[in-house]
């Protein structure tokens, strides 16, 4: 991040996080209402599936962020060499 300071703007993090969640999960799942209405009808197993899906989305999201960070660093290094 060229010219960036060490300070992190919390509002920028929240906005980017919200946009990422909307992109990854979609507007139908963002509120969580649809998920709860569907899975809660299955009782305790429904809650377990909601937690499993949360963990899956967390893993996928972290993976996207890590790959993006690696690509950013790679592009900065290769730009200097070429």
Provide an overview of this structure.
By secondary structure, the protein is mostly helical. The mean pLDDT is 75. The chain has helices at residues 10-25, 27-30, 33-39, 44-81. 79% of the residues lie in helices and 0% in strands. It is elongated, with a radius of gyration of 18 Å. It has one domain (10-81).
Cα-based radius of gyration, to the nearest Å: 18 Å
Give the N-terminus to C-terminus distance in angstroms. 19 Å
Broad structural category: mainly alpha
Number of separate domains: 1
Helix content: over 70%
Helical region count?
4
Can you tell me the residue ranges where pLDDT is under 50 for at least 5 consecutive residues? none
Order of helices and strands: HHHH
Largest sheet: none
Kindly report the average pLDDT value: 75
Strand portion, in percent? under 5%
What is the molecular shape? Answer: elongated
Question: Could you write a compact summary of the structure shown?
Answer:
Helix content is 79%, strand content 0%. By secondary structure, the chain is mainly alpha-helical. It has one domain (10-81).
Give the topology.
Elements: H1 10-25, H2 27-30, H3 33-39, H4 44-81
Helix pairs in contact: 3-4
